[in-house]
Design goal:
Radius of gyration of chain A: 36 Å
Structural class of chain B: mainly alpha
CATH architecture of the largest domain in chain A: 3-Layer(aba) Sandwich
Radius of gyration of chain B: 21 Å
Largest sheet of chain A: 5 strands, mixed
Order of helices and strands of chain B: HHHHEEEHHHHHHHHHH
Number of helices of chain B: 14
CATH topology of the largest domain in chain A: Beta-lactamase
Strand content of chain A: 15-25%
Helix content of chain B: 55-70%
Structural class of chain A: alpha+beta
Number of strands of chain B: 3
CATH superfamily of the largest domain in chain A: DD-peptidase/beta-lactamase superfamily
Number of strands of chain A: 21
Oligomer: heterodimer
Distance between the termini of chain A: 134 Å
Shape of chain A: elongated
Largest sheet of chain B: 3 strands, antiparallel
Strand content of chain B: under 5%
Distance between the termini of chain B: 7 Å
Shape of chain B: globular
Helix content of chain A: 25-40%
Number of helices of chain A: 24
Number of domains of chain A: 2
């Protein structure tokens, strides 16, 4: 026994007992603590545990495809991967940045900038550093899962515009939902959702966009998905079939390739838009990924306005095409006798001012038919003065000018048809009678859009039926307007337009087609008066060349309006060939189809089953088979 | 009276409680790790327990009086190892706590110091031989305890350093402190707390972080407060009956930090519910009360001080660890004795209990 502990056997029992009591108290306090968490707040913490481990991963629904009238794909969607950068571990992030820059080929400044931009976003929200990953990028992420856990792949649906610039201004483009749309959507959209921003993509966004699905997965503490709980499949957007004819569109695109302007081709009976072109244009595929800010600024500020759809938004002076409105007003109103003749010495004086005819030598004595064929300005100056601005206005508006056609595209422009009331309202002065003379040949303050002009010609040639131009094949609510015209007037005016192409001295004589009842009217609108142009020493490039052609002469199956801007040539020689090519292609295609039908059609009636087979082998060209052209 | 101490005289009920707690620990280690890259950890833990049992047996064989004879030497040896670890020890998680023993085994030397301080302070209080400690005695206790505390603090290991203090406090309480001194001590603590708060800037960044986090856990949901919050979520979502063995999402998916070690009670609370927690805490209460019983029945004061030193450390461990798991205390890295996975810690607890057996089996020996 060690000497230091001898005779020391007195144990402080009381203090030991006190220690025991204190221990009991502490354990009870701890149990109370556990009771509070596990019994009283259990529900709250169960929610938190649930939220911890369950992630909702959206399954992006593919947007519906856009098809042409024969079902050919113009636009579709394809799955693609975006690369996400997870930012919840700043240390790991900083260490990985150099490797990420190298591996994915992202500039250091770009990545730093993106991180800087997202600095105030919640740290657990990843940022998209590469919206369209290449195969190599995907392989890089997959092979570096262990050492670069901050990278993640997300499957997205990307828009593919199969033919690049073709039909771009009409189709429009998609982009990330704007903050304004987000607010208005009332929870329908989430940030980063892709929506239609312009054109058909915007107009038919509701049909085209599907419903995103959702996958519920259990994740572990580092966010790795361990297993899937359930899956709500995405509902893909519905495809929409357009009235556009890819073949005709392609021909028109080629014709317009190096020009500025617009083309619209309609089925005059239904309003179906067969061709729509606006130049210059852009490639919507650039928007399908993320458009760099510099590129966007370039497109938006380009003086050539490539984002404008000139077919429905360019408000231009119609020039001589407006003479069809004048002739119709003259004949239908009967304010002037149908056999009225005017003498054209190459110029005429009205209200103390000399107005020139485009042909300095003049046309001699002309009636309305000859005036249309040769596009005599003096004749129309004369009847314009006789009709007066308000009657001209009423006919122009009645035939669909100065107001939107109702085409199923956003932001259609109305154009302008001046009237006394309009001048009062806008300029607060009385109508200058001299202005009527300019309006008579489609100059002055008259502006129209190409689609209005196409529909106007269709209306005249059909005797006053205003179809609603549209691009959706199965549009059920096409609004049809009526502006009844006397048959005499229609006959005379359409004969005039037939003469433009098929009579010697016609402004479109060079455009005539064999076996096609091709009619039309040219127009060459000055951007400034001859005098002003001469004063400024400007040569050429100061006119818009128009041609509106259609066939057949009455109740046309196809009406094409084309405008070629900033040229020094006559509308008949710039826009005319574009129209002619489309009309020719339309009939070539139709005839080939009829021949094919005749060749494959069984000579004798057969059993219904075989009939179905034969019909299936040669699908009819929708909309073109009803009235075979001779 | 017997003349030879025998292992047959071990406190078998106490041993039963130890085995029960250890078994729950091994099961929970298994549940926490079986579905992860650390699968098989329970076998390693069983190995540590085996080593601990051998240590327990060996330490119970050496008469505690003999050990206490060597107290000054042990104390110097302990301080020396602490100095050595500061010089040649290697770092893990930013702290120098481990010495390589060869063969890939690393010893956390501060665990050894816990054993030594129990023996040293038992010797000290026995030597004082009074029912009222003088101010001088208290001062001495402070010095003896303070040096190793300081050495462990600069490792830095705030948790283990704090663990040494209760041995001194409980010892002093049992030796007898005048009420004046008690009052002064309380006032001093009250005064020093704010000073300590201002001194926190001298703490290591991770320690500062832990304190701020403890006071404002919601401010940094993905940082250090994340650990406390995840632990609370695990405990709370376990509810009354628990989610079932191996079915705790917080545990199985790795949301609970070091769920097999410091936060093993959170893992258990999630899977076994309040019922499971009651069983565990009552087992610990049983352990402490049984230890106190051993102290009461010790043959002499020396034995009592040894037993109560062990009790103080284990009790402190349980109190601090359980409080941390439910967010009542900051994260300090103090494991739950007998349950948390860990080589050195497990070995220490078994050897400390070996000291208790040592005292127990000698109570009737002359």
């Amino acid at each position: 026994m060690a000497p230091w502990s001898v005779n020391d056997q007195k144990i402080p029992q009381g203090r030991l007992a006190l220690f025991s009591y204190v221990s009991v108290v502490f354990i009870v306090l701890l149990l109370v603590g556990f009771w509070k968490l596990q019994v009283i707040q259990s529900g709250h913490f169960s929610d938190l545990a649930e939220r911890n481990q369950i992630r909702y991963i959206p399954i992006i629904a593919p947007r519906g495809a856009l098809l042409d009238r024969e079902g050919r794909v113009l636009v579709d969607s394809y799955p693609s991967f975006s690369i996400l950068l997870l930012r919840d571990d700043p240390k790991a992030l900083q260490k990985s940045l150099a490797a990420i820059e190298d591996g994915l080929g992202i500039a250091k400044e770009d990545l730093t900038q993106q991180l800087e931009n997202a600095r105030f976003e919640p740290k657990f929200e990843p940022i998209v550093i590469k919206p369209a990953a290449s195969q190599a990028d995907i392989a890089f992420v997959e092979s570096h899962r262990a050492d670069l856990p901050v990278l993640e792949l997300m499957m997205v649906q990307r828009r593919r515009y199969q033919h690049g610039q073709m039909l771009a201004n009409t189709i429009g483009y998609v982009g990330e939902v704007s903050s304004q749309q987000l607010e208005q959507s009332d929870g329908h959209y989430r940030p980063g959702d892709i929506v239609g921003k312009a054109g058909l993509e915007r107009e038919y966004n509701d049909q085209l966009e599907g419903t995103d699905g959702m996958r519920r997965v259990v994740v572990n503490s580092v966010g790795k998905a361990m297993r899937t709980l359930d899956n709500v499949e995405a509902i893909p957007g519905k495809p929409i079939q357009l009235t556009i004819d890819y073949d005709l569109q392609a021909i028109a695109e080629a014709d317009m390739a190096d020009k500025a302007g617009a083309v619209v081709a309609l089925d005059g009976r239904t309003g179906e838009v067969l061709v729509m072109i606006s130049r210059p244009t852009f490639d919507p595929n650039d928007f399908a990924v993320r458009i760099p800010a510099s590129e966007w600024a370039k497109l938006n500020t380009d003086p050539e306005t490539p984002l404008l759809n000139r077919a429905i938004q360019a408000q231009l002076a119609p020039g001589s095409v407006f003479k069809i409105v004048m002739a119709t007003a003259m004949l239908d109103s009967k304010a002037i006798p149908a056999d009225f003749h005017a003498f054209c010495p190459g110029h005429a004086e009205f209200y103390g001012r000399v107005f020139h005819c485009w042909r300095p030598a003049g046309h001699g004595s002309v009636d309305v038919h000859r005036a249309i064929v040769a596009s005599c300005d003096v004749f129309f100056y004369t009847i314009g003065k006789m009709l007066g601005i308000d009657r001209i206005h009423d006919y122009a508006v009645g035939l669909g000018l100065g107001r939107p056609t109702g085409v199923d595209l956003p932001s259609e422009q109305p154009g302008l048809i001046p009237s006394e009331e309009w001048v009062q309202r806008v300029y607060h002065h009385k109508w200058y009678a001299g202005e009527t003379i300019s309006v008579s040949i489609g100059q002055g303050s008259v502006t129209v859009t190409p689609i209005q002009l196409a529909r106007m010609i269709a209306t005249v040639a059909s005797g006053g039926t205003l179809v609603q131009p549209h691009l959706l094949k199965n549009l059920v609510t096409t609004k049809v307007g009526h502006f009844p015209l006397s048959d005499d007037a229609v006959e005379t005016v359409t004969q005039g337009m037939y003469g433009v192409i098929n009579e010697g001295g016609g402004t479109g004589y060079s455009l005539r087609l064999q076996n096609v009842d091709f009619s039309g009217k040219s127009g060459t609108a000055q951007l400034m008066s001859y005098e002003a142009g001469a004063k400024m020493g400007k040569k050429g490039k100061n006119t818009n060349g128009w041609f509106v052609g259609y066939a057949p002469r009455r109740n046309p199956e196809i009406v094409v309006a084309a405008v070629v801007q900033d040229t020094d040539l006559h509308g008949g020689s710039t826009a005319g060939p574009v129209v002619r090519d489309i009309v020719k292609a339309f009939y070539d295609k139709k005839n080939a189809h009829l021949q094919q039908q005749a060749a494959t059609a069984p000579p004798t009636p057969t059993s219904p089953a075989e009939h179905v087979e034969a019909a299936a082998a040669t699908p009819p060209l929708a909309g073109t088979e009803e009235t075979p052209h001779p | 009276m017997k003349d030879r101490p025998s292992t047959q005289d071990w406190d078998w009920p106490l041993f039963g409680i130890i085995c029960a707690i250890s078994t729950l620990g091994v099961l929970e280690v298994y549940s926490s790790t079986h579905a992860s890259a650390m699968a098989g950890m329970q076998w390693k833990q069983l190995m540590w327990i085996g080593i601990g049992l051998v240590g327990m047996f060996l330490i119970s064989r050496i008469d505690y009086h003999t050990l206490m004879d060597q107290a000054p030497a042990l104390y110097l040896f302990g301080l020396a190892t602490l100095l050595v670890v500061l010089v040649i020890g290697h770092s893990r998680f930013g702290a120098k706590r481990w010495v390589a023993l060869g063969g890939g085994v690393n010893l956390q030397v501060s665990e050894l110091m816990k054993l030594i301080i129990i023996v040293v302070l038992a010797r000290f209080f026995t030597d004082v031989r009074t029912d009222r400690l003088t101010l001088q005695d208290i001062f001495k206790v402070g010095i003896v305890t303070g040096i190793p505390v300081l050495l462990i603090l600069i490792q830095p290991d705030l948790g283990t350093a704090m663990v040494l203090v209760p041995v001194a406090v409980v010892g002093a309480f049992l030796a007898g402190i005048e009420w004046k001194h008690q009052a002064v001590a309380l006032v001093l603590i009250a005064l020093l707390l704010p000073v300590g708060w201002h001194m926190r800037t001298h703490l290591k960044p991770y320690q500062q972080q832990r304190i701020t986090t403890f006071l404002h856990p919601e401010e940094n949901p993905r940082g250090a407060g994340y650990q406390i919050l995840q632990s609370e979520i695990a405990v709370g979502s376990g509810g009354f009956w628990g989610k079932g063995f191996g079915k705790g999402s917080q545990n199985q998916l790795g949301f609970v930090p070091v769920r097999y070690s410091d936060f093993i009670l959170a893992a258990l609370a999630e899977e076994q519910g309040f019922i499971g927690v009651c069983v565990v805490l009552l087992l610990y209460l049983g352990l402490i009360l049984r230890l106190v019983d051993n102290a009461q029945k010790a043959k002499d004061r020396a034995g009592m001080y040894v037993v109560m030193g062990v009790t103080a450390i284990l009790g402190f461990h349980v109190l601090v660890n359980a409080s941390m798991v439910i967010g009542y205390m900051p994260v300090t890295g103090i494991p739950l004795p007998l349950m948390s996975y860990g080589g050195s810690a497990t070995a220490f607890v078994y050897m400390a209990l070996g000291l208790v057996m040592n005292v127990r089996m000698r109570r009737f020996v002359n």
